[in-house]
């Protein structure tokens, strides 16, 4: 296991009966309804759900930026009262600071926290830059990097902080298919070197299964956890596993649940559900 900037801590997050509504009675709409799950210590939990089901709302609650109407969130048994440095949240819009070099961006967290000696910070930055293939670009500014390189820089900047819990909201959304696949591989390689409690949110099924120790499938709005699956694919993971029977079995099982949800949303007139159904049909009916 790689040496961390901070001593490893136990981190378990319990979410109990979360309900979140927007608006006022009787016109409110319920975004989360009795949502419960556990992020186990040292596990990579992936949350997958249809667009608009309340994933980002849930992340805001976990981050402590917003409060639930009912239910509670516990970190190692203690209620989460607001934002804290124990939880690092990476939003989809998160970007590198344009006025800093790649090196400066990655070193930023520990430099601000001032809890690690300078030489150790340097070692960690170099190691992470190497890991994400940016060692030759450390003196460049974000505008001199490609989109994929910028994302790798963000990944390194996130990993160096080593918080108790890391929460990522669709970090690879919007990347082209090849860059996205590479990002997944970088991400999995870095994570497999240390055990950290991570919640990774996505709407992409292959990404979800490839990364996950545990998969949570969320329902349409109001969001709740419909199914929990333990993904026992061996580690280290590699993309060849996406062809195995074991993998396809997990995918089939997850898609059945997602498909049933999409049909419900489709009946309600959702465009994203229609896209999902078309994709499902292509992959599972036409190829059969
Ligand atoms: N501050 C708010 N006030 C009112 N409604 C909101 C607010 N934030 C979110 N919503 C509504 O809650 C629902 C869920 O939104 P959320 O962003 O959590 O979904 P999501 O699953 O993250 O979607 P996506 O996959 O598109 O990112 C949406 O219908 C949205 O309109
Ligand atoms: Mg979202």
Strand percent estimate = 15-25%
Spatial sequence of strands, sheet with the most strands? 6-7-8-3-9-10
Kindly identify the CATH topology of the largest domain: Rossmann fold
Count structural domains: 2
Largest sheet: 6 strands, mixed
- Rg, alpha carbons: 19 Å
List bound small molecules. adenosine-5'-triphosphate, magnesium ion
Beginning-to-end CA distance, first to last residue: 43 Å
Q: How many alpha or pi helices?
A: 8
Instruction: List segments where confidence is low: pLDDT < 50 over at least 5 consecutive residues.
Output: 1-6
By DSSP, the count of extended strands is 10
- Helix fraction? 25-40%
- The CATH homology group name of the largest domain: P-loop containing nucleotide triphosphate hydrolases
Oligomer: single chain
Order of helices and strands: EEEHEEEHHHEHEHEEHH
* Proper CATH architecture of the largest domain: 3-Layer(aba) Sandwich
Given helix and strand content, the structural type is alpha/beta
